[in-house]
Amino acid sequence: MCTVVIDVAADGVRLLAVRDEDPQRAWDDLGGWWPGAYPGVVGVHDRRAGGAWLAYDPNERRLAVLLNRADVQDLPEERMLSRGSLALESASGRSPAVGQPLPMHGFNLLEVDEAGARVLSWDGVLLRETAVPHGVHMIAHDELDDPRTARIGAWLPRFAASRPEDDGWAARWIDLLAESGSLPPEDDRAIIRDNHAHGYPTMSLLFCVAEVSPAGVQARSHVLPTPGEWG
């Protein structure tokens, strides 16, 4: 149940992404973990399946973030492919074709380049594309800017009111993220989350801020000291 805040502007794209995952699932922070298969790609590495949650190619000015979503897929688990390759493939310039069926559980794949952003959504029936318009938006486990997602309804207006316009954008958005951390992590409006109360073993583990522009990709991450808690 990850969360991404994204601003699409004429001079590039900026985002704040929060990763929720089972803290017992081993992973590695931002690095070039795939020198053979994906040379030059940097990302947050999932050790179990070998994939990535967020990945980018600084030279090609492409970035992708993977978010889980519900699906109606009825394939047996042994025939399911890991979703972890999606962000890596996207950062390398290879995206799944819109309309094709996929032997994977549901996802939202946010794809960013210097010209803009889009979301590829798979619900087990149809892979479809949603362009991300100019301005500030949020996405989690449902649709872009979906008001049914409590944290989007609660925080999108605040992030939009603090739209990035200069080099201080990351600090302003992180301040808002810290403010959201005053909510109990099990509160459905929380961005920093403990999803056990909602029936999932995942907790917020880290956040990344990134900017994609004609000058390249800049990204940095911050690992939360305690999963599911801000400070």
If you had to describe this structure to a student in words, what would you say it looks like?
The structure is a single chain. This protein has 231 residues and is mainly β. It is 13% helix and 36% strand. The chain has 3 helices and 12 strands; from the N terminus they run ββββββαββββααββ. The protein has a 7-stranded antiparallel beta sheet, with helices on one face. Strands 10-1-2-11-12 form a 5-stranded antiparallel beta sheet, covered by helices on one side. The model has no long low-confidence stretch (mean pLDDT 93).
Structural class: mainly beta
Radius of gyration: 16 Å
Uncertain residue segments: none
Separation, N- and C-terminal Cα atoms:
20 Å
**What fraction strand?**
35-45%
- Estimate the helix proportion, in percent: 10-25%
Total beta strand runs: 12
Count of DSSP-assigned helices: 3
| Anisotropy-based shape | globular
Question: Biggest sheet, open or closed, and with what strands and sense?
Answer: 7 strands, antiparallel
**If strands are numbered along the chain, what order do they take across the biggest sheet?**
3-4-5-6-7-8-9
Draw up the topology in text.
Elements: E1 3-9, E2 12-21, E3 27-31, E4 42-46, E5 52-57, E6 62-68, H1 85-91, E7 107-113, E8 116-122, E9 127-131, E10 135-139, H2 150-161, H3 169-180, E11 203-213, E12 216-223
Antiparallel strand pairs: 1-2, 1-10, 2-11, 3-4, 4-5, 5-6, 6-7, 7-8, 8-9, 11-12
